[in-house]
């Protein structure tokens, strides 16, 4: 008698066993385990570097991860840029026909700037990296020396990838303003805003207003707290070649503004930027007013009796979807709170209070000659 086959339980799922690979199907090269570099491969890959005066550091290199480290070299200073720069090169081979060359520069003050280039040929990578002047990564923006990290990018519209079709893409910038670290992070996606961070040291604590950078214009957003400091978003172009020059220009303007503002008393900020502070307040409330307006239009149309089948009545049901599209197009969520009105800043907003000889601030100290 025929017995039906018992049903397999739905849970837990059946374990998938590894099947033997057929001989006719080649293995995916991207999933192959990394083969350690041999001594012959290291000599072959380092040959174009040796011709340019770079020598392999076998002790610091890692053959298992296919990473070659070169010995540090020195770049002497110039009359316009005094001070030597220390260069370190690292060549990585993360996958087949893909190499990554990273140049790390360190100046006398300890600032670090990197330059990265990716491609299939190590010889072309070292040519692209050497074509960029090391002093180019330490420009003076806003009267301050900045360590800028770039990526060498090939123009996708060029044919053949000739050296003349490359450009620099700004990734990160670091500097110090008398104990306050300023960092610009432009490693963001297409159309996303960059970030400016203010990172004070324990010796220099500041309490900046939210509109410290927003007074510069529409591209600068308000400051908000982050880990160890404050953060503000910066609107930048979506793609190159307009992106990097725009970021560098806005960074120079930001640093010049910070240098002039932090050197002056905090009370001068409110008096100097009063009109811009009110304009920044209006821009901050624009997102909240837009959301409130879109939410009020829909019920308002139905309340005033739009006829059946009219475009206005249809619009009242489409408004929530339009609100979502507006938020997506902004690439950032608006702050759903009423910002404080611009007011004069306290005297210790970014200037330390004078301390007594016992180490405590003078503000709030009771006169010891007055009895309780």
Q: Explain this structure to me?
A:
With 372 residues, the protein is α+β, with helices and mostly antiparallel strands. The protein folds into two domains: 34-273, no CATH class; 276-330. Helices cover 27% and strands 22% of the residues. Strands 1, 2, 3, 4, 5, 8, 9, 10, 11, 12 and 13 form an eleven-stranded mixed β-sheet that branches. Strands 6-7 form a two-stranded antiparallel sheet. Helix 5 runs antiparallel to helix 6 (311-330). The N and C termini lie far apart (107 Å). 19% of the residues are buried. The model is unreliable at 158-162 and 354-372 (pLDDT under 50).
Range of strand content: 15-25%
- Terminal CA distance: 107 Å
The low-confidence parts are 158-162, 354-372
Count of alpha/pi helices: 6
Structural class: alpha+beta
Radius of gyration (CA) equals: 30 Å
Broad shape: flat
| Helix fraction by DSSP (H/I, runs of at least 4) | 25-40%
